[in-house]
Backbone:
């Protein structure tokens, strides 16, 4: 009997070794540990055995049963694992295939740059002030200390609008956002004409110059100007503010220099250069070898301009500066053709 | 302005300063150096991977290899007719040099010269420019046989030494050139090309730049001494001046020099003029140009005998006056010019002689035959000269200066300097005196400055003595009285004002002299301004963000367009029109943003999918007045709805409802309610059946729809329908948003579908509205999930299937939901004749 049990176990285990899928395993289970398997028949025949034999054979049969069931569980787990491994292997993707994209909206690069600039200025206390794009000669030039026929007008070639005879005050497309300086000063001065309040504004907007459209020159461009007017504002404050701005815009290590310059609406006037962020000041194509990039023009608001804005230059002073977001983008992204900006080619716009 | 350093050094000691240091100082003080061209002087060394601080070009001359030499004999070449052999002494030894130079060729076979000719001699191994190359190509002199004669060195032309483009002959130096001296020591130079700002015309001359450098370096300015001997009858007895309009001609000065010999100027003078960009002509014309570059006063030389002859032998009378309209004058470039009354003429009693301050006349100009020269220095109204020069398109060195303002005091200085140079270079005799008519001297600018002013505007503490010491080198006269400094402008400056303007003018000079780089950096101590913000700007930025989040690309178009371009989509009667457009297709300011986005779509027609928007003004003209600039928004979508990929081979194209969905999301993002969409069949550029207007409350804020096929045909666009929307942002912005949220329920919703069959003509919005109305508060969402037409339901009918979401604040029973559903169906049946679709 014990011999037979050993044989049953041996046959069952040998047969199990050959099992390699779930179906065979199920069949094995019926054959070897199922209700009518030889092993179960041994259990069924226990009653017929003698009192002495019964516990011995019973114990042996139980041992075989436990062994076969353990072997079965083991096999079942192995088959499951193999099946999972197989299916995982089969499901493997080519991870190098491109991912799926969606239509993404973007702001125009000029809007993006305007926002960068205005965000920094906002934190420095400069509020956005906007004004019209078609202007009078007075606002664009005369109030800003460009008298009619002044040579400084050569610096700003102008588009004039057909508007009938208007003498020395023709209508034109603004050549800079500076007319907004006068609009703003007058608006603020009106709040309290005897004691006009201080002003800190940023003036963004589209400007126009009579130019041919080439890689280097455009008929329209954005400008951002800053204007601060108050009772204690100095040229040293202008340097402090613009250096702060440069450090925020170009990095805390940005070095600047101020060169004397000329604008009719500021005096003293200056150009601020920032050390070339492409070559670190060594000289390269972007900075035309100088190591410096011209970033903005600035100066103390001219007394005539303060006066035209309703601010007494004996009491008030101020500074102003102007810069071009498209120029900043061209430097940052090494864009060598200014026509991209209004060309509206999606292949350009999608890169920002 | 091109400025040779050698000239500058006559007026200021620049020892110990490199050319680049000088250029840097000038640049920071507002005299921006655009380029440095070396013509002999050593160029700064370049370190690895670095470039020059300034745009740099030119040639440095090797001290040992390029020297002054003299030609002692000119012999023919034994085997070449066109060549000569020069016996030349370079200070150390004799050399034989081959040349084909035409300015030596006439001496061929002359043998030993009575007077040696001084030349610029480049020895074997010297690096110079190749005179025969097209551009500037460096070459190193090597030994070679030319027709049997050894050649290893050469007498150089200006081109070979980088002085000018001239390769017509070799340089013949002045007789006093010291043989054997390194050429760089004798005439090595570097030229600064300086941009002159409009307010710095006073510095468009050598003396002006030297004065600036004196102030910047603390070195002494050594002005040229203008003294000369005079002989003969005084010019005051021979010539008179009549100025008819002092406003246009505040001063006119004449001097006379007799018995000049017209010949070339000394070589050093010619070289300097060439480096300064002026072509040498002869000693008299060169003297006028040299004096102008030196002092800043443009001069004009008349042939005195021509004027005398025109006066019939009598005394010459010079008259300045505006031209008569249509009056003609042939200028010295040979062009007959028709003048207008805005041009000023210099005339004699017979008629016009020259265009004042712009260009001389042909008849009275200096020629080879001239013996006696009448020299003019005058002051003109800068605005008038600017207009005249522009009108006749005559930019010149003279009009450049006069149109920016030249102080009348320079008229006299200039004439005296010119006469001095003419006498030195031509052997002429200067007549005593000057004829000087000075009816309108400019106001002298006097400004009072205090230390407080300097502190208030520049932010630095300076004593009055310190302020004075910054201004004196620029030749301001400074008097300290107590707590004030009285600053009087020098007599060469027209740019200094009075009062508060004068103060700003003076403080700019203080700051420049002090050095912008030395000024401190401070933070504003002033009170904060009133916070007014910019609600329009902020709101538009919000709109931009919403649209970008909806997958639309922002574009920015040219504001300038043409009526023809816009008329492809819409036409307008009037435009803001430019008087001076750059091109016909950019002659008006746009009126339609739809035209802008359509042009952008056309430009990108090859893209699979286009979804873009633009925000900006359009320009509505008002006669004789500034235009209105209303703000608009345009959206455009066309092409594939999905992005194609390796497993997405195809996609439906955008249609009306894609656009409508974006608009719905935009308006809900702006928190608007009470929005209605109504069919709008009469918008000419939109498909009559696929167009809608958008109202919020009673206000029509925009229209959208599919582009009319006939309009689409006018553009080069793809096959797919083009969806276009236009909004009036000013109208939209004025609508008050309604803020509020629905609480998020905690109990689960009950979901139910319902499909009804209605007539094709019944708008879905009606069905939707009725369902919502009947469902009441518990009906939280109604979503149309299917629209079906087909035989099953019969012709002229459509089936609308809705998913309904009931949401109560407590759990709803099925019976409650069924009751509402029953009510909804009943109302749909009664009011719209709908039938439940089972």
Residues:
């Amino acid at each position: 009997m014990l011999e037979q049990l050993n044989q049953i176990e041996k046959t069952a285990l040998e047969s199990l070794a050959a099992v390699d899928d779930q179906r065979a395993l199920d069949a094995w289970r019926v054959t070897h540990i199922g209700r009518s398997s030889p092993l179960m028949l041994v259990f069924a025949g226990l009653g017929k055995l003698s009192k002495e034999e019964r516990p011995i054979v019973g114990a042996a049969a139980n041992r075989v049963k436990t062994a076969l069931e353990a072997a079965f569980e083991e096999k079942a787990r192995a088959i499951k694992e193999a099946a999972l491994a197989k299916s995982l292997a089969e499901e493997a993707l080519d991870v190098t295939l491109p991912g799926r994209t969606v239509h993404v909206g973007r702001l125009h690069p000029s809007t993006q740059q305007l926002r960068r600039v205005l965000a920094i200025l906002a934190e420095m206390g400069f509020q956005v002030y906007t004004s019209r794009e078609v202007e009078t000669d007075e606002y664009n030039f005369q109030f800003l200390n460009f008298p009619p026929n002044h040579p400084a007008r050569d610096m700003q070639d102008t588009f004039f609008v057909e508007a009938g005879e208007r003498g020395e005050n023709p209508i034109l497309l603004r050549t800079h956002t500076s007319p907004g300086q006068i609009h703003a000063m007058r608006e603020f001065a009106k709040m309290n004409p005897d004691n006009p309040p201080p002003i800190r504004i940023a003036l963004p907007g589209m400007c126009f110059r009579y130019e041919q459209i080439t890689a280097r020159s455009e008929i329209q461009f954005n400008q951002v100007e800053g204007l601060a007017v108050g009772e204690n504002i100095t040229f040293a404050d202008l340097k402090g503010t613009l250096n702060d701005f440069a450090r925020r815009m170009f990095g805390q290590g940005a070095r600047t220099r101020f060169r004397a310059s000329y604008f009719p609406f500021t005096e003293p006037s200056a150009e601020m250069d920032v050390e070339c962020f492409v070559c670190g000041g060594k000289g390269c194509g972007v900075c035309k070898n100088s190591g410096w990039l011209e970033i903005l023009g600035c100066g103390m608001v001219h007394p005539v301009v303060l006066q035209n804005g309703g601010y007494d230059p004996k009491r008030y002073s101020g500074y102003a500066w102007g810069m071009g977001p498209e120029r900043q983008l061209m430097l940052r992204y090494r864009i060598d053709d200014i026509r991209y900006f209004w060309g509206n080619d999606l292949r350009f716009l999608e890169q920002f | 302005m091109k400025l040779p350093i050698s000239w500058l050094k006559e007026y200021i000691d620049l020892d110990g300063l490199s050319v680049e240091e000088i250029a840097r100082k000038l640049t920071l003080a507002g005299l921006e150096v655009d380029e440095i061209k070396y013509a002999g002087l050593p160029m700064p060394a370049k370190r690895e991977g670095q470039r020059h601080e300034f745009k740099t070009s030119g040639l440095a001359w090797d001290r040992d290899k390029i020297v002054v030499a003299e030609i002692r004999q000119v012999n023919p070449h034994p085997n070449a007719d066109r060549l000569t052999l020069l016996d030349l002494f370079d200070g150390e030894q004799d050399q034989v040099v081959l040349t084909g130079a035409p300015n030596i060729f006439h001496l061929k076979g002359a043998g030993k010269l009575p007077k040696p000719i001084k030349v610029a001699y480049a020895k074997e191994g010297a690096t110079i420019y190749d005179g025969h190359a097209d551009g500037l190509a460096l070459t190193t002199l090597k030994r070679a046989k030319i027709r049997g004669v050894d050649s290893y060195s050469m007498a150089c032309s200006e081109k070979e030494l980088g002085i000018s483009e001239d390769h017509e002959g070799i340089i013949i130096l002045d007789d006093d050139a010291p043989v054997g001296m390194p050429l760089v020591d004798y005439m090595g130079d570097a030229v600064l090309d300086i941009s002159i700002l409009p307010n710095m015309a006073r510095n468009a001359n050598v003396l002006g730049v030297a004065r600036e450098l004196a102030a910047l370096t603390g070195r002494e300015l050594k002005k040229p001494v203008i003294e000369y001997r005079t002989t003969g009858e005084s010019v005051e007895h021979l010539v008179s001046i009549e100025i008819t309009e002092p406003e246009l001609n505040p001063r006119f000065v004449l001097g006379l020099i007799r018995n000049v010999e017209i010949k070339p100027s000394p070589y050093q003078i010619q070289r300097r003029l060439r480096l300064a960009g002026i072509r040498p002509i002869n000693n008299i014309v060169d003297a006028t140009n040299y004096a102008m570059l030196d002092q800043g006063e443009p001069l004009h030389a008349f042939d005195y005998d021509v004027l005398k002859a025109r006066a019939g032998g009598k005394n010459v009378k010079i008259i300045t006056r505006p031209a008569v309209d249509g009056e003609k004058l042939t200028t010295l470039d040979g062009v007959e010019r028709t003048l207008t009354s805005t041009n000023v003429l210099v005339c004699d009693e017979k008629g016009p002689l020259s265009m004042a301050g712009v260009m001389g006349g042909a008849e009275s100009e200096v020629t080879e035959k001239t013996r006696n020269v009448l020299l003019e220095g005058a002051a003109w109204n800068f605005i008038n000269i600017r207009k005249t020069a522009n009108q006749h398109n005559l930019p010149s060195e003279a009009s450049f200066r006069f149109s920016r303002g030249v102080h009348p005091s320079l008229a006299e200085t200039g004439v005296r300097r010119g006469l001095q140079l003419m006498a030195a270079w031509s052997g002429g005799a200067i007549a005593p005196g000057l004829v000087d008519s000075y009816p309108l001297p400019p106001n002298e600018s006097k400004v009072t400055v205090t230390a407080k002013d300097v502190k208030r505007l520049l932010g630095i503490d300076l004593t009055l003595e310190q302020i004075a010491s910054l201004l004196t080198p620029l030749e301001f006269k400074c008097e300290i009285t107590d707590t004030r400094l009285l600053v009087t402008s020098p007599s060469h400056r027209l740019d200094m004002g009075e009062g508060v303007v004068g103060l700003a003018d003076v403080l700019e000079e203080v700051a420049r002299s002090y050095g912008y780089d030395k000024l401190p950096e401070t933070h504003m101590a002033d009170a904060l301004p009133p916070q007014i913000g910019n609600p329009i700007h902020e709101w538009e930025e919000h709109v931009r963000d919403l649209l970008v989040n909806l997958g639309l690309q922002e574009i920015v178009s040219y504001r300038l367009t043409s009526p023809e371009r816009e008329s492809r989509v819409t036409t307008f009667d009037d435009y803001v029109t430019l008087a001076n457009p750059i091109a016909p297709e950019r002659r008006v300011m746009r009126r339609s943003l739809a035209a802008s986005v359509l042009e952008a779509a056309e430009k990108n027609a090859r893209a699979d999918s286009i979804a873009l928007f633009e925000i900006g003004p359009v320009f509505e003209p008002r006669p004789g007045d500034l235009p209105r600039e209303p703000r608009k928004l345009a959206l455009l979508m066309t092409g594939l709805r999905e992005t194609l990929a390796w497993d997405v081979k195809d996609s439906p194209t955008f249609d009306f409802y894609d656009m409508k969905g974006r608009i719905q999301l935009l308006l809900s993002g702006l928190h608007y309610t009470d929005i209605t969409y109504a069919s709008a069949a009469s918008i000419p550029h939109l498909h009559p059946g696929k167009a809608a207007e958008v109202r919020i409350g009673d206000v029509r804020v925009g229209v959208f729809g599919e582009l009319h096929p006939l309009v689409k045909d006018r553009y080069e666009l793809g096959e797919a329908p083009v969806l276009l929307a236009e909004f009036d942002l000013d109208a939209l912005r004025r609508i008050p948003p309604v803020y509020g949220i629905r609480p998020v329920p905690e109990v689960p919703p009950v979901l139910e579908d319902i499909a009804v069959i209605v007539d094709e003509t019944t708008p879905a919005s009606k069905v939707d509205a009725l369902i919502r109305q009947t469902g009441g508060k518990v009906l939280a969402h109604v979503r149309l999930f299917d629209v079906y037409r087909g035989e099953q339901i019969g012709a002229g009918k459509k089936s609308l299937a809705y998913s309904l979401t009931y949401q109560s604040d407590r759990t709803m029973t099925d019976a409650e939901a069924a009751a509402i559903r029953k009510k909804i169906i009943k109302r749909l049946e009664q009011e719209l004749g709908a039938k439940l679709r089972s």
Q: What stands out?
A: Residues 2-91 of chain A form one domain.
